[in-house]
Amino acid sequence: MQLLFKQRLFSWFDSYDIYDESGNTVYTVKGKLSWGHLLEIYDRFDNHIGTVQERVLTFLPKFLMYINGQEIGEIRKELTFLKPKFTLDCNGWTVDGDWLEWDYRVKDSAGSLIMTASKEFLHFSDTYVLDIVKEEDALLCLMIVLAIDAAKCSGGQD
After folding, report:
1. pLDDT recorded at residue 110
2. What's the rounded Cα separation, in Å, for the pair 52 and 38?
3. What is the pLDDT of residue 13?
4. InterPro entries given for it (predicted)?
5. Does position 150 have pLDDT exceeding 50, yes or no?
6. Going by CATH, does the domain composed of 2-154 fall within 3.40.50.1980?
């Protein structure tokens, strides 16, 4: 399954439209006024299904992820040089990124690929392509990319 993650160009808060391979809107992400990033995810029927919320007053960016109101894990940026490192506490998955912070891979505890995410160049707004192995992992994969993008923004790298 492939998703196209595109930030809305003219928006006061972080807002994104997420499209499938056919160009259909699968998810909508709405940023909410909050201390730190607060991103709410809606399905194609406008039902609230997930939340990515930044924990404030931490040394490095840290985000909690919720599906249907249940906390399912967290992702946090680690202090490293040259190559970005995120620690993911969810499903036994790991995140690995390239040194430019444009491409990411998520793998399970056995080392099997769950998703790749690549930032596209030459767009007016942030645009990512997510290649997800299993369709049932799409929401969690989207949440991981949202948290990484918000962490980069919090670090002044956006």
Report:
1. 95
2. 6
3. 60
4. LOR, LOR_sf, Tubby-like_C
5. yes
6. no
